[in-house]
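Protocol step 4 of 6: structure prediction from sequence.
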Amino acid sequence: MRKYTKEYILEKLRETATKIGSSFKATEFERVTGIDRDLVSRIFGSWYDAMTAAELEPIASRRSITKPELIAQAKILAAELQKETLTKTEWKKKRIYSEGVIRRRFGSWPNFLKEAGLKIGRRRDIPNDELLAEMGRLHNLLGKKISTNDMNSRGEFSSNIYIRRWGSWKNAWSCYLDSPYVISSRKPQEIDEYKQLSKRYFGEIINIHGLLHAPVNELGVIYLFALASKRLGYNMEAIQSEFPDAVAKRMLPGQKHWESIRIEFEYESSSFKKHGHDPKGCDLIVCWQHDWKECPLPVLELRKIIKALVEEK
């Protein structure tokens, strides 16, 4: 039995469009290609999403449902579920209009929730595969290397999630290009970029126990701080993927009591502002390089104290 991939089905959808027009039913597609329409729905989530991924217009969406009608349906469903937000899974279970319709009308799922007056849910521990698959969807949709602006305006997730997970947007893109979710037709420019991104870069030699080179990204800062935290007077309580990055305890100077402190890790302190973090939700920025003169929070610049840490070995 032939194993159908998304790429193969997309190719057949577009071939069918050249034969019978850009809008056709699932039954017509099955008749022309012999590919089971239920199989297409299982692979893409729905027939609507398959047609949208192929940049075609599903027959059922010809009615041109309006944004106010979609917003009304969202509010009704939220009221039924007694929730202040909605997930795509909840939307699909009710067999309401597909994600493709939402993307065409609102640009992205978060934008849809915002216009409907619902809260934008913040998921924790999103699997890497799900993040990379969303990159692949946008890459296929836009036909170019996607930027942080593309992800923020048209993607399901914020670009900050990718930057936090992989240290930078470049690292995230590199990981995507090496994943099974990358679209099959890479452009020569993208291949050259991938080769560049595949190179490893190292910071200056610091030779602290457990780390030879200085950090070159946020993940390196986290690792270095973890190595040195006890010598710096911090006991780590938790590290998480959401803001703030960590919760720790430190002893108050000249006292016997400990205080809880919320920490955000950045390679450069100015990234705290670039990522749009709220200073009220954090007590300390730990970074490699402090380059934010107007910073409203205390900053622990590891670069300046590294010599002392090395001497303590």
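Step 5 (inspection) to follow. The chain has a mean pLDDT of 79.
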